[in-house]
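Researcher: I'm comparing several assemblies side by side, and this is the next one on my list. It has 535 residues spread over two chains. Same procedure as the others: predict the full complex and return the structure.
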Amino acid sequence: MLIRRSNLLVPIGDADAINNAWRHGADAIALDLEGSSPCAQPRMKAAIAAAARGAAEVFVRIDKANLKAGLDASVWPGLAGIVLPQVESASDVADAEAITGALERERGIEPGSLTFIVLLESARAVWNIREILAASPRISQAGLDEPDLAASLGIEPDPEYDPFVYARGRLAVEATAAKVGAIGMAYPMSVLQPTDGSPAEIEKMATRARNSGMKGVLCPHPGWVAPVNAAFTPTPELVHYNHRVREAFAAGLEAGTAAVPLDGRMIDVPVDEWAIVVIATAEACAARDAQKREALERAG
Amino acid sequence: MSKPAEIDHAAKAGADVIVLDLVEFVVDKDKPAARERVRNALATVSGAGGEVFAQIDPHAAGADLAACAWPGLSGIVVSRAEKPQQITEISALLGRLEKERGLAKGTVKIVPALETAQGNHEAYEIARASERVWGVTLGRADLVMDLRPEPSDEIHLMPYLMQRLIIVAGAAGVTPIGAWWRAPDRGLLATPENTFEAARRGRAIGFQGTMCVKRSQVEPLNRAYASTARTASHG
């Protein structure tokens, strides 16, 4: 099970942010080359190593206009994958795939091991999502870049009217069908992205995102990481309840029935199946958090 | 087009586009007379500075287009468009009429109104069916598809259809036209205030202009869509 709840974006030009990114507890860190100057690129190897100190998966968000140069600067051992912005079609994915595959072979990286996170930023991308997700087995997550999607549609975001209910729903359905994790924050935090959001508010919005099918959030600020991780981690109460669900259901089966009441709720096959998912998610989150904790202790 | 007095008024309403209607507001027995009036009406309203469209019935496309495709016509709204083939056929007919009547090739744009489930199902293909397609709209899908507003005043399924249409329009490179109407102020009878709110909501989700019926609705629509500035008034 892929646990990549938080993916912290860090601008490659900000040396302090790069050197401290590992301290925030993010499951993943995305070094952001989008909009950066090419002179940042020689620093990538060191930046990847710095970001990996806390056991985060390290990604690079490349600049679509400099795809080849960006990949050439970034694909080194230790990199988990690439964030591909402005993907609009299967051929955009194929272009990145070809270059990434060649660099893996050249640089002694296991072929096919680098993963892609695709970002959809236009109506064309949202409409073409099925062919985009089918274009490469490397794609592990997909999300909307809502500020850019709004700009491309001429929308000035109004917090009262969420313009992307359909687009996000399409993402959740198509991504799930393609066994890809949908990522994104709830509206309006998905477009307004405050630097000063309170942890409680961020956790509430991330919980809403999780409850609409999202599996993680690309975090524009370090302050988002802890509340996002919390929102995507099943609480001990939920895990405890779901162990009771599993026990009650197993006892029901023993007694010859596949539908048993528990606390006024009917437990049947889909409820038991969901309990399995919640428990497995909690265990996977705990394992991931233990890895990060050990890495932090080692790094001092 | 069955009410000649409306046409003079429409010219003065300040809309960016005036739509001469041969479908919704014209009963069958009046259609031949209404068609005969279009050519003169085009001359009247096109002099006012706005663009002039005509709304036609795809099942009477031959007669409706022959009546409308005269100098002064900028485009047509295809009521209840359902199939890309309808649009390609209408486009071919327009090409012949433009040639015969001395209009520049490609002058007449097409706005399919996707008012049925079938039309919405093929929305992208319809929007891409001809170079002439300039925009898409849902027309009166809420009525045609029986999407009732009770009990919340939200016209059920319309937010989904609207947001999907906006994505389709963006993907196809055409303009999404509409407003987010709520009961009881469905477009036909909405007050100026509620028209403004419908347009403001519509704009917030990506619409770039809308169609209206009453002249008093033009000003609030133009105000709400100020920076995108596209409004059409039916005459």
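Model: For your comparison table: DSSP finds ten helices and eight strands in chain B.
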